[in-house]
Specification:
GO molecular function, one term: maltose binding
Pfam family, one: SBP_bac_8
Number of domains: 2
Structural class: alpha/beta
Family: Belongs to the bacterial solute-binding protein 1 family.
CATH class of the largest domain: Alpha Beta
Helix content: 25-40%
CATH topology of the largest domain: D-Maltodextrin-Binding Protein, domain 2
Protein name: Extracellular solute-binding protein
GO biological process, one term: maltose transport
Amino acid sequence: MKFKKVTALALCVAMSATALAGCGSKAATTDSQTAAPAESTAADTADTADAAEEAPVETKDVTLKVWAPQEDQNPTDTYDKGMLAAMCDAFNEAHPEWNITYEYGVCGEDVAKDEVTKDVDAAADVYMFANDQLPILVEAGAIAELGGKNLEEVKATNSESMINTVTYEGGVYGVPYAYNGWFMYYDSSKFTEDEVKDLDVMLAKDLGDDVTNVCFQLSNSWYIPSFFYGVGGTMFGPDGTDGSVPCDFDDEKGLAVTNYLIDLAANPKFTNQANEEAGKAINLFTEGKLGAFFSGSWDREAIETALGDNFACAQLPSFKAGDYEGTMKSYAGSKAIGVNPTCENMDVAVALAVYLGNADCQKIRYEVRGVVPLDSTGIDDVMLNAITDTVNNTSVAQPLVSEMNGWWSNAEAFGKAIVAGEVNHDNAQDKLTNFIANVNAGGSLE
């Protein structure tokens, strides 16, 4: 991959002046702020101006404990103290009203719920976390709800689907900064940009002998709901936040989807990639025997190597299940920045969290670590363009309610049964009804 270089610190400093205008007081008051009378001499005016210029800016000494992955703190050619320290130092310089001393610690997004909840009072003031950990963090009293101008800023700079990834029981609890979800990779020598807009068109195309048109992880419970959501199905309320509202995938739309998936699994131009078959699609791409595959950014390097100049990506396609037309919708997750509610300097911590999640800091993470930004403005990259389109047009936020625990194993079993031919057109309704009944049995947080 080839990325454009940017002056990262300059970008971060530039944004802080506007993005965080509502965080803290920046006005420095002096005894000489009143205008001089009309009869004042030039010397008096000059003295007043000098006094104003020399008036010190009142600063507040602040210590913030910041936890982030080790990779964010490793020295690089550009950032000798690591990119996290560089971004935090830039934030400090942009805020003369605060004199911030940082204490850094290592904590990956994947283990935040474990490390932070061990001792909330002793944990970091600002930390990174994976959004599916939000219910546990909230219920442990380990993360602060955003409000006021900071919340307005976060909402103004993120899509609704990304805001939903950090929303729990009506409150917004973090600043999303990276995307975690899936989209479509395809071979541009086999499909055009117009053809990949419609899954049924893709499946109908003749790509030649021994070529599979589409590979999908139908037996993976993170992927299969995309079809049910696509025709208007809902899980735990319209936005997935109310566990008391059952999943409705077992209605007539859901039955149409089930019959569609039965036909999909039986289609000779389709192949499933089971959980234990990781790499199957990449091998087919390498052999020139696959048209499209649905996965995330983690497979980019291998697929781009396999396809070379034919490497292409797109948002999810439309499809028609019986009388219902829809567009596949993947679960959109995020990595986010949270603030400890026990923080002594809450205003500074929240302002830092908003800053570290802004578009320019996202670009730094992308350039240094390849972390997928939510805002790819100014970055010319086919995968990032596809991700942005997916987030905005063909995704839903993964439900964060505890009842979601009833989904994963049941959905995997249902997908496997479809692939194995155990679910057919004759028993589809009964199998679907039983499947969703098990889902709606719910579960508890783990």
